[in-house]
């Protein structure tokens, strides 16, 4: 396998963002969960979404500790006619998805810190493997039958699971030029960790062979090929295992501008530079050749340009609008960026309404478009357009302690692509489906 192709496969294994676009998790706060349009935020999550906006906070120290619990189901439906089953379901789980924001503000200057999981953030488990693992096995009965050895069944024990965390540690310095204009500069340190484990074991077939298997019962495929004098096929049918860890780190420079031209309008603009990120394989076991030990490949986090607007429609009602553009085509993914047709983007809108002085409710909608080509899509990794709805609220438990809570649900647009493989003459379809949902809670202290 050529190194370029290996790099693309490694990249596809390394990008299971929980909510967001190809790599970036945009769900960085409980406020986002309840209202996914935060780019003009002047609350605690402005540390991430609008660093210059923290200048709208009161003087003093502010701290917010939050957690999200996230679930995602990934379904792959494969139309290859020789498979025992056509549906493969992967479960991604992130019961602990923490974030933390801290701000100290004094008059025209503020220093802030944020922590979050910028990509990945959970575990994914395909209990029955993936079609690309099983299709080569499903070809064995047809292969043997073509050689005059009637064979109609196969079975195998296939598993694949992965864990991915891109931890982000962010620091900002914000300054108020005037009451209407504030600026900020910051940097985020990213530590990336992926871990993948998988196995393909106990391949069984039922060849009707008068000497080796006269009863036509299920037997080890490796044993049969060995007894039949087919050593190359016997080697292909051997058990295989993968246990690989990938690590790397990088820095993201961040610039931010907040404009407040009136008491009713606030505008946030943020630019995150491309994060140069190299991941290196530490392969304890790799019987597939897909994860060469010590191999280093680029897995950049693309630059982001964000715009947000918050408008006070009436004293108790605020409207929020956000737009993010992710510069995927300019990132370096060791060639995988060539499978991107256009940069990803998302658009969000939402509102907050004060029921009382101490209790507000919010809701929002987010549309995400990922501009990947059909050639990008596969059972290892696929990216889908999506629609997200968030709901929640905030309770001021005391004048200095706030409690935020929310939930969101994401429905992805199905995508399909056509495949054709060696040793089989007809093309077949593969379809990708996904749903995500999550709940979040956070507590804030304002001293």
| Lateral strand order in the biggest sheet | 1-2-3-4-5-7-8-11-12-13-14-15-16-18
Main sheet makeup:
14 strands, antiparallel, barrel
| Beta-strand residue percentage | over 45%
Low-confidence stretches: 1-9
Enumerate how many helices there are, as a single number: 7
Shape: elongated
CATH class: Mainly Beta
Outline of this structure?
The protein is mainly beta and 447 residues long. It is built from seven helices and 18 strands.
Outline the fold blueprint.
Elements: H1 3-13, H2 30-34, H3 46-49, E1 60-78, E2 87-106, E3 109-126, H4 131-138, H5 140-146, E4 154-176, E5 181-205, E6 219-220, H6 221-227, H7 231-236, E7 240-262, E8 265-272, E9 278-286, E10 296-298, E11 304-314, E12 317-326, E13 340-354, E14 359-372, E15 386-398, E16 401-412, E17 415-419, E18 428-446
Antiparallel strand pairs: 1-2, 1-18, 2-3, 3-4, 4-5, 5-6, 5-7, 7-8, 7-9, 8-11, 9-10, 11-12, 12-13, 13-14, 14-15, 15-16, 16-18, 17-18
């Amino acid at each position: 396998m050529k190194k370029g192709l290996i790099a693309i496969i490694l990249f596809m294994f390394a990008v299971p963002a929980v909510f967001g676009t190809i790599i970036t998790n945009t769900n960085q706060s409980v406020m986002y969960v309840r209202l996914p349009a935060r780019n003009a935020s002047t609350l605690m999550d402005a540390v991430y979404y609008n660093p210059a906006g923290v200048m709208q906070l009161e003087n003093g120290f502010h701290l917010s500790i939050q957690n999200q619990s996230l679930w995602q189901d990934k379904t792959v439906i494969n139309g290859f006619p020789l498979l025992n089953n056509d549906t493969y379901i992967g479960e991604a789980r992130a019961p602990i998805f923490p974030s933390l924001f801290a701000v100290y503000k004094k008059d025209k200057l503020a220093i802030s810190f944020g922590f979050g999981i910028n990509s990945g953030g959970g575990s994914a488990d395909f209990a029955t493997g993936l079609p690309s693992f099983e299709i080569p096995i499903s070809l064995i009965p047809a292969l043997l039958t073509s050689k005059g050895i009637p064979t109609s069944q196969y079975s195998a024990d296939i598993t694949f699971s992965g864990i991915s965390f891109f931890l982000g540690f962010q620091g900002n310095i914000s300054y108020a030029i005037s009451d209407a204009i504030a600026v900020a500069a910051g940097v985020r340190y990213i530590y990336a960790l992926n871990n993948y484990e998988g196995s393909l074991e106990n391949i069984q077939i039922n060849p009707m062979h008068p000497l080796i298997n006269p009863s036509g019962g299920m037997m080890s495929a490796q044993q049969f090929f060995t007894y039949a004098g087919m050593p190359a096929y016997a080697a292909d049918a051997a058990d295989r295992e993968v246990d690989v860890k990938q690590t790397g780190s990088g820095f993201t420079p961040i610039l931010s501008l907040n404009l407040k031209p009136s008491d009713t309008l606030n505008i946030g603009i943020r630019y995150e530079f491309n994060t140069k990120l190299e991941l290196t394989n530490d392969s304890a076991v790799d019987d597939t050749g897909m994860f060469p030990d010590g191999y280093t490949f680029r897995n950049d986090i693309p630059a982001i340009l964000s715009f947000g607007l918050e408008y006070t429609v009436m004293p108790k009602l605020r409207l929020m609008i956000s737009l993010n553009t992710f510069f995927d085509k300019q990132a370096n993914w060791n060639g995988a960026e060539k499978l991107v047709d256009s940069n990803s983007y998302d658009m969000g809108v939402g509102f907050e309404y004060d029921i009382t002085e101490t209790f507000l409710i919010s809701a929002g909608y987010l549309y995400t478009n990922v501009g990947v080509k059909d050639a990008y899509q596969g059972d290892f990794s696929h990216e889908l357009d999506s629609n997200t709805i968030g709901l929640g609220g905030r309770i001021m438990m005391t004048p200095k302690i706030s409690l935020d809570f929310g939930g969101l649900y994401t429905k992805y647009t199905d995508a399909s692509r056509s495949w054709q493989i060696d040793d089989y003459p007809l093309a077949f379809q593969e379809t990708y489906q996904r749903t995500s949902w999550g709940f979040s809670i956070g507590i804030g202290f304002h001293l």
